[in-house]
Design a protein that fits this description.
The complex is a heterodimer. Chain A has 4 helices and no strands. By secondary structure, chain A is mainly α. The radius of gyration of chain A is 21 Å and the shape is elongated. By secondary structure, chain B is α+β, with helices and mostly antiparallel strands. In chain B, helix 10 packs across helix 11. The chains are: A mainly alpha, B alpha+beta. Chains A and B meet through helix 3 and helix 4 of A and helix 1, helix 3, helix 11, strand 3 and strand 4 of B.
Chain lengths: 101, 388
């Protein structure tokens, strides 16, 4: 878990520096993110904003920081219809047991 | 309990889950598998129940708990083997191991079976969209397994029998009495939290009625122990009776469970000879310093000499080594029961005859199956207590 924390920390620093740099080029000002927000991995907006599930060993590039890596696990498992469509067929077996269990 | 639809079992409430500390952990850290939009690829080497190996998952953050929980009664089911071995079923005997694996091991409870999903023994499924709950749910966790006796009694699901007053009026759930200490099997130094505890250390139990009486009624109803609460019946009986003798009502007993495998599907099945409601006071078979009572409610357990004959004839080779009417703590407590009710024009002393001289409520030899008399010799009430 420590390695993950370190990875998140450096990722956060990198994102913060890039956003400061990008904000200088923008004609409209945008609020500077609180560095602490970089550690927040959840938003309440949409499943598309589910942050990447990235291992500690991955070195994130600048390109990765600009586009979130989708968490395919959650994209599927938070979609009721998709779960219904991909569910294995259920075979209902009549119980042959009798009496209190 | 109604089964969940397949999609319901695995639907993650992303918004809620990602807002929790466990939501920070990448899915694959616990579940392995692969990041892919294709289900088959994504489920490569998938671990559906990571907490079945708690040292590698839950234990990374909760090492103090998993170290002990792995040896708890819920995890190891030691209580089953304790009574099975007493009756001659050896844990080292392959047919017994096969029987146990098919019919008993399903009650094994992992961390996830209490804290994130329904137990696998009732087909599993997320309770709260993968959010981890510190307190297990009474309906989705505890009584999912402990349902046919404790759950039904506690929640008043038997016709004409009230729910336990702790539930009905106290709105208490299982965890209000059965704490995490007990469930996790943690060796506890009482002085860490309590002043003047009854003991210095609570060691994990070999079975549920082993060791200190935890939980105990007196923990909350201390005035009863002191025998100065002004209630004549308490002062007269003191520790001769367990609290449940006077304060519980009819509960479930079961006869003769036989296990086997289905000829058509190979699935484990069971057949119980019968289940019935009743109230029986017997002599305390496990009398001790912590359970000093002379009389306690007793419940018949569904063991018979032929219970496991499918696996090996006569596997229960010593059924008489332990009583089949066992010490019971029915979870259907009432303040007023048939034993404590006072009729309208009676004096308080008239309640004595609700019990004294009343053969109907005692476990006598007439209640014992012919082949079980010897097993229950320490429980049978030979002489109905009369009024002093």
């Amino acid at each position: 878990m420590k390695n993950k924390d370190n990875a998140h920390f450096f990722k956060g620093i990198l994102v913060f520096v890039m956003m400061i740099g990008l904000s200088c080029c923008q004609s409209h000002s945008t609020p500077a993110p609180d560095p602490g927000d970089q550690f927040v991995t959840a938003t309440s907006e949409s499943t598309a904003s589910i942050l990447p599930s990235v291992s500690a060993e991955t070195d994130l590039t600048a390109e990765d920081q600009e586009t979130e890596i989708p968490n395919e696990c959650l994209i599927c498992h938070s979609d009721q219809q998709k779960l219904i469509d991909t569910a294995n067929p259920v075979v209902v077996l009549e119980s042959e047991s009798s009496g209190e269990g | 309990m109604a089964p969940l639809e397949p999609w319901e079992k695995v639907l993650v409430e992303a918004e809620a889950f990602l807002d929790t500390i466990h939501g920070y952990i990448p899915c694959q850290e616990c579940h392995q598998g692969e990041q892919s939009a294709d289900k088959e690829v994504a489920h490569t080497d998938l671990i559906s129940y990571p907490s079945d190996n708690p040292d590698k998952t839950c234990g990374e953050c909760h090492p103090n708990l998993t170290t002990f929980a792995d040896n708890s009664l819920h995890a190891q089911l030691d209580g089953y083997w304790t009574v099975l071995e007493t009756r001659g079923v050896s844990q080292d005997h392959p047919p017994a191991q096969e029987m146990f694996g098919n019919h008993c091991a399903g009650c094994h409870a992992s961390c996830g079976d209490c804290h994130v999903s329904r137990p696998t023994s009732v087909d599993g499924g997320f309770i709260d969209g993968h959010v981890f709950n510190a307190e297990p749910s009474m309906t989705n966790n505890c009584t999912a397994c402990h349902g046919s006796r404790v759950g039904n009694e506690y929640m008043g699901k038997h016709e004409d029998l009230k729910a336990d007053v702790h539930f009905r009026q106290g709105r208490m759930t299982c965890v209000d009495c059965h704490t995490g200490h007990e469930m996790h099997g943690v060796e506890t130094n009482c002085q860490d939290c309590h002043e003047n505890p009854e003991a210095d250390v609570i060691t994990p139990s070999d079975h549920r009625y082993d060791g200190l009486q935890l939980p105990s009624c007196e923990s909350c109803h201390a005035e009863v122990t002191a025998s100065n609460d002004g209630i004549l019946l308490h002062e007269e009986h003191n520790s001769k009776l367990s609290c449940q003798v006077c304060h519980s009502i009819s509960y479930t007993s079961c006869d003769g469970c036989h296990v086997s495998l289905s000829e058509s599907t190979g699935s484990p099945i069971f057949e119980t000879e019968g289940s019935y409601l009743g109230f029986y006071i017997g002599r305390n078979p496990i009398q001790s310093y912590t359970r000093p009572y002379e009389y306690v409610p007793v419940r018949h357990v569904p063991i018979s000499t032929s219970s496991f004959d499918y696996y090996e004839a006569g596997m229960v080779s010593n059924i008489s080594a332990k009583e089949t009417w066992v010490y019971a703590t029915p979870h259907n407590i009432q303040r007023f029961t048939p034993l404590t009710e006072i009729c309208e024009n009676c004096s308080p002393a008239d309640t004595c005859t609700n019990c004294h001289g009343n053969r109907e409520i005692f476990l006598t030899i007439d209640n014992i199956a012919p082949g079980e008399v010897n097993a229950n010799r320490n429980v049978i009430v030979d002489v109905i207590p009369s009024l002093p």
